[in-house]
Amino acid sequence: MTSLTATTGTATTRDRVRQVVVLVGSLVAALGAAYGSGAFGGQSTADAAGGALSASATPLAPDTPAFSIWSVIYTALLVFAVVQALPRYASDARLRAVSWWLLASMLLNALWIGVVQAGSVGGSVLVIVALVVVLSVVLVRLVRTSHTAALPSAVTDVTTGLYLGWVSVATLANVAAFLTVAEIGELGLGATTWSVVVLAAGAALSVAYAVFARVRPAVALPIGLAMAWGLAWIGLGRTNGPLVDATVANAAFVASAVALLAPVVTTLVARRR
Fold this sequence. Notes:
Layout: H1 13-36, H2 69-84, H3 93-117, H4 121-144, H5 150-181, H6 191-212, H7 217-237, H8 246-272
Helix pairs in contact: 1-2, 1-3, 2-5, 3-4, 4-5, 5-6, 5-7, 6-7, 6-8, 7-8
Keywords: Membrane, Transmembrane, Transmembrane helix
InterPro entries: TspO/MBR-related_sf
Protein name: Tryptophan-rich sensory protein
């Protein structure tokens, strides 16, 4: 894998502008997302679009407590926004490489909430796929750029990992919700079989992330942790409530274990080499 050398030079006017815009933009995006999700009153995301994205809408919907991870992710994003704005890190090469992309991801997340509130589940799929693509670009840049100062490197890696891991699981649930709303639903496989296939794909994706990011455990491990969290709550959601399905629950728990262990294994293997 090609690694780009991270260098720190003299801060430029462009760096200062980036710092300010990313900080302000992050605050606006976070407030917009909180407002749109019902944090200040109004309709929650789970109730929007006819409840298509609620915890009991499809067999692949994570149970309600799973969404508490958003508070961790938003906090991490705001910490990132503050750290990248510190004068001492204006010319940090890794921040130069990913700050604009992370801001774009926050704006896309706010847009996703807005699209869901407008009742467009199909539109939300397009937005969340774009969000995964943007975060994947961030992952590639972080893996291929050497660490710089400890604080911005750690904050950026952990934030990106948690964000990408959770959004990857949320994408599976979002697609399942769209297929249900569009009455495509089970695709001739039956709800249980279809759900197990998607969960297997989620486990495979977690392994792919772990293999690609094996030289950056600070980002690989949070990806696995966030995916394991989301997949486990899919399993827990199928053990009680209106959509009990033991087969899907067991498949989700296995996928969660794979997501949790994959980055540990790949990181250990990479270090031994």
